[in-house]
What we know:
Helices cover 59% and strands 14% of the residues. It is an alpha/beta fold and 169 residues long.
Amino acid sequence: MGMDRAARAPPRDRPSPRKTASASRAPTGLNGLGTGVADSKNLTGVRVMVIDDSNTIRRSAEIFLMQAGCQVILAENGFDALSKIADHQPDLIFVDIMMPRLDGYQTCSLIKKSGKHRATPVIMLSSKDSLFDRARGRMVGSDEYLTKPFTKESLLRAVEAHLSQRSPA
């Protein structure tokens, strides 16, 4: 049986390469951590609203943003968002374009027409990536256009970019 244990020992060593594989993800994370570490420090306490009718998109964004230290406010549609904006005063807003009732363009326009929230950055989210959609977003006052599916890095870069523009150090 001692031989069986010895024979089993090398397979137990095999998970170590898997750990190394996880560690090999760390360099990828380090690339992300290059911005991720800075993001985590810079984004702690930042209030970010995510408006999307897709639960999957809302949850993904919430996880990415919370890992970076953000406070996340979720809304399923434009009407829900407009009521929560007044209560939570987000520092930045992500809004999906294609939503029922009040679409992202209308929601963005209403946010930007509000004197109190005119300066709040609004980033449009869409699976469409046409020049027309981007231009229409700019026309209603959006500050950026992010194509879905987004990555954690692209989401955090957008937050960091717009917050650094708002409050230069």
